[in-house]
Amino acid sequence: MPTVDVYSALANPVRRGLLEGLIDGPRPAGELAGAFSLSRPAVSEHLAVLKRAGLVHEEPRGRHRYYHLRPEPLAEVGDWLHPFEHYWRARMGALRDVLDEISDSDSDKADSGAS
Amino acid sequence: MPTVDVYSALANPVRRGLLEGLIDGPRPAGELAGAFSLSRPAVSEHLAVLKRAGLVHEEPRGRHRYYHLRPEPLAEVGDWLHPFEHYWRARMGALRDVLDEISDSDSDKADSGAS
DNA sequence: AGAATGTGTCGGAGATCTCCGACGCGTCAA
DNA sequence: TTGACGCGTCGGAGATCTCCGACACATTCT
After folding, report:
1. The pLDDT of residue B19
2. Is the predicted pLDDT of residue B9 greater than 80, yes or no?
3. pLDDT per residue over B14-47, tens digit each?
4. Which pTM was predicted?
5. How distant is C1' of D1 from CA of B86, in Å?
6. pLDDT of residue A111
């Protein structure tokens, strides 16, 4: 129960999916479990890990338990990534230019989609 | 042995440290191992994991093996983080204002330099 | 050639993860 | 109160991780 570091919490695809499912707003545990074709205990345990990592927050509401996203700890990952970001951007600069030109003729149509 | 996803590769603090140690440039395995008070086989195995994740590249050179940073796969993590980034920035807006005001009275070196 | 150096790989021990079925506890409806 | 529902926790099985000492292999030096 001590704590879980954010990186380990993010290492599991189910947990990443749970966080994605919470972007739109709080959801009860059962609803989240239904989306993963996993047993409820398994999802419950994943949620507990996310809670220990400080990435979600429990709100008991009636006989449901709503989970809220708490994305602040993700900032640590973003910060860690930062020095590398410059690096990979530099290496991908040429490719970026090409892609920019292609999407330039397509306009800047942003679409939001989960992976 | 197929491949390792970037998130799992990043879940271990030693592996993150290895990547950090490669930012300044390629280094031989032994030098990297010395910085971690870990046995050589352990570091070697961590490097193998990073290699399977596509995060480093081996360059045999004499009787050394230089490891090069290959940060492109980290872009996946950055992309995944993106939708959350907006979220946590919004939530930290108020705190940001307070901090800005504090550092404002501290000196005049507070300049918001975004990339 | 023979010795020394730099590294990966093998074999195994111990810890940790992931998942499940069964159960207990609290909440809501009748 | 009694029963149905939502959900966490317990106990355990199987897989995976992390680490080490010992060994093998290639390169370099003497």
Report:
1. 98
2. yes
3. 999 999 999 999 999 999 999 999 999 999 999 9
4. 0.81
5. 51
6. 43
Q: Is A99's Cβ below 8 Å from some Cβ in B? A: no
pLDDT at residue A89 is higher than 70: no
Interface of A with B in 62-91 (CB under 8 A): 69, 71-72, 74-75, 77-78, 80-81, 83-85, 87-88, 91
DSSP string covering chain B: -----HHHHHTSHHHHHHHHHTTTS-EEHHHHHHTTTS-HHHHHHHHHHHHHTTSEEEEEETTEEEEEE--TTHHHHHHHHHHHHHHHHHHTHHHHHHHHHHHHHH-S-------
